[in-house]
Fold each of these.
Amino acid sequence: MTVQSDRRFPIGLTVATAISLAILCGLGAWQMQRLAWKQDLLTRIAALQGAAATPWTPKSAEFTRVTLTCPGLAKAPFVQLYAIRDGKAGERIISACPTPQGTVLIDRGFVADTISARPPVDAADRTPVAVIGVLRAGDARSFVTPPDQPQKGQFFARDAAAIGAGLNVSNPAPLFLMAETSTNPEWAALEPAPLPAEISNRHLEYALTWFGLAATLACVYAAMLWRRRRD
């Protein structure tokens, strides 16, 4: 019996390779998009460093430094937003600041999970608190974001509408005011944290990695086809 080599075109392997290449190139392209976004973010943060604070208005843009006076903010009711800062898990304390032009959600700062105490709450207190901070947009939810627990005042996404509802506020301003100045100077556990402590930018490295894997896979596939044809 004569044994013949199988010279049929490897359709299954070709389809698998094409799918893998599409995924790898897609991941590389996504990282390039993230790179552009991160570079824009870093540019705006750099411009923010020396910017003077201006009074808040409903037209104030993201990544601007503003001032706002809030009645009773030091003892205002709050909800908690899960966060990680400097490698530590904790909560961000968020309260509502009513103004004649609308309600602004104030991110008063970060409290580490190792601290069980929280700022005092007295809804009757109307002592004005002047806040200087940075306006930031909310965060998009993803499939890994846990569901909020509004009945417990616990949130996992910086969603203005959801957090506003948790504070009994309708139609809050879309941008959060991330406090740079302390709303509770007597309570050091509450750390004003308007911006991430460190912002890494390795997206180009990640993109080159995905594109490099795609190129390697294409070379291996081409070498396999060449060897089959030679044999």
Amino acid sequence: MTKQIDETDRALIALLSRDARSPVATLARRLDLARSTVQARLERLERAGVIAGYTLRLGADARPAIRATALLSVEAHRQAALVSTLEAIPEVEVVHTTSGRFDLMIQIGAPTTEALDAVLDRIHAAKGVKSSESLIHLTTRIDRRPL
């Protein structure tokens, strides 16, 4: 099923991306539409899976102080078990499979460099990890993620 999204839907999504708590009446006023029209569009976008949910975005003071990405090369047939191991590490926030030189890209958040070091040691020692490379995030220059 192709999800049809028009310019009005895109504008609605853009407004919600900036503030997911915007009241429907405010969205309607900004889009110059009736409140019932905006409500119907929201419901359609939710049913279609275009809008998967509403959430909050933590400010810098509420997020872990140190952020890093670990790139892992994984032994063949060990990836599923390794992902289960990573799932048990609370500092591991996101795990992506990748193409190219590395098999997994892991986003990590830790309160201190010592805690990050301990997490990286744990990841690097996990069964199935052939090699790894770690990148500590310094400054975020662009962040367009709605979450």
Amino acid sequence: MPLTYVKSNKNDLIDAEAIAEAVTRPTMRFVEIRTPEQIDLQALHRVRDRMIAHRTRLISQMRAFCLEYGIAIHQGAGKFRADMPRILADDANELSAAMRCILTEIFGELAELEQRITTMNREIEAIAARSDTARRLMTVPGVGPLAATALLAAAGTGQQFRKARDLAAWLGLVPREYSTGGKTKLLGISKRGNKYLRRMLIHGARSCVTHLDRSRDRLGPWLNGLESRMHKNKVTVALAAKIARILWVVLTKPGASYARNDPAFS
């Protein structure tokens, strides 16, 4: 509750009075009540995100232990999974028996964790496949089952946003403003709102910047123009903001989906 409406000290009576005053304001914004389905889906994503973070910690710990013995492993989960069994099986390296045992146990823990992550990914993919809205959201470039279901869990129907830019602003993908005295000053993105969903969209946008077939998608000429005048990271965030606006249209208009029209060249 905004502190602006709390007069003097804080107690239950003053809080109730402040709430009654706040709800009468025409420009006050309220949090949309989530459905049980949204709560369950968001919980699924949060558990998966925790598992991903734990997997990263396990890999980092094992890499650090190996470096203590002069054994360097490539970065990245895929290369680590390929290199670690070879290192554990190599009796000629300098790993001690105790450290080899410790690494074997941690690697087994990692394998079990990855199996749980795979199971959870399949569950999320199944939810996305059953949802008509999620399937339409996945027609947008850079949006897969994870981003589509995360948006449904966080934003629901999207009707609480008056326009597409409101969704992008809610995700913190628009510039912060610090203007005074008639002087407009725009800063970096605000990074407000759901950081998990914002990260999903930025990762998807980064993939599009690299792999999107620009000769066959309407976003191609727009991306080419951005890349000619700004850094690739800024292009990625700008594309993520545009994707968020497109998602709002798909989310709020029944039957709408992204049309990958060929760009018009003059």
